[in-house]
Design a protein that fits this description.
CATH architecture: 3-Layer(aba) Sandwich
Order of helices and strands: EHHEEEHEHEE
Structural class: alpha+beta
CATH class: Alpha Beta
Distance between the termini: 22 Å
Mean pLDDT: 87
CATH superfamily: Gcn5-related N-acetyltransferase (GNAT)
Bound molecules: coenzyme A
Number of domains: 1
Length: 182
């Protein structure tokens, strides 16, 4: 499965970002801010080179950033969050999502996730899947609220610290879930 080149819609209904935050496709100019958010939120942060590599493959990857809309005269607003996905044969995979600690619980994460889901749906993809640390209650709740269901575990999947992964799955319009259930 590959990704087309159309831009996704801003968000799905019901998950708009706060009014001082805008979503836009991630570009090289955002990478410094993206890396800062990643360092502040991940126990094993991706280095900037990993994000750069992801952006070099637009046929299978889509990344979005959330930026503060003010001050308006700056060329880009401060990056406060980001999310990305990769098209795989079985399903679109959420690769990463994070919101700067000072901006959490304002709806930014939900808006970023909605952007990914709306983009995947618009591109005709049938399902979205992801892994999440079993102890990451905030992310598990975010995904559950978006309609993801827990469909399996990967024991010891994560390192530093070692932790199980929960596999989550969301069928987009009309698609079947693994095992044939709907
Ligand atoms: C997970 C994360 C992206 C959520 O971003 P956010 O902007 O704070 O999320 P939102 O404000 O949009 O919250 C949406 C919903 O997620 C859930 N949620 C978010 N943070 C939560 C928390 N700390 N505790 C419990 N539920 C939480 C809630 O259901 C929330 O809805 P509500 O506020 O109406 O109750 C953010 O906590 C984060 O960056 N965490 C570190 C990185 C990470 O764990 N990424 C996921 C990797 S799989």
């Amino acid at each position: 499965m590959t990704l087309g080149h159309r831009r996704g819609p801003a968000t799905m209904a019901g998950a708009w970002p706060p009014c001082d935050v805008g979503l836009q496709p991630m570009g090289a100019r955002h990478l410094r801010g993206v890396a800062a958010v990643e360092r502040a939120t991940s126990p094993r942060p991706w280095p900037p080179a990993t994000f750069r590599r992801e952006l070099e493959d637009p046929a299978t990857r889509r990344y979005v950033v959330a930026c503060l809309a003010w001050p308006r005269r700056r060329p880009i607003g401060k990056v406060v969050g980001f999310a990305g996905m990769q098209a795989r044969p079985e399903a679109t995979h959420v690769t990463n999502i994070a919101v700067a600690p000072a901006q959490q619980r304002r709806g930014v994460g939900a808006a970023l996730l909605a952007w990914l889901l709306a983009t995947a749906a618009e591109l005709g993809h049938e399902a979205v899947t992801l892994e999440v640390r079993a102890g990451n209650a905030a992310a598990r709740r975010l995904y559950a609220r978006a309609g993801f269901q827990e469909v399996g575990m990967r024991p010891g999947y994560y390192r530093q610290p070692e932790e199980d992964a929960v596999i989550m799955w969301l069928a987009l319009a009309g698609a079947a879930r693994p095992g044939g259930a709907r």
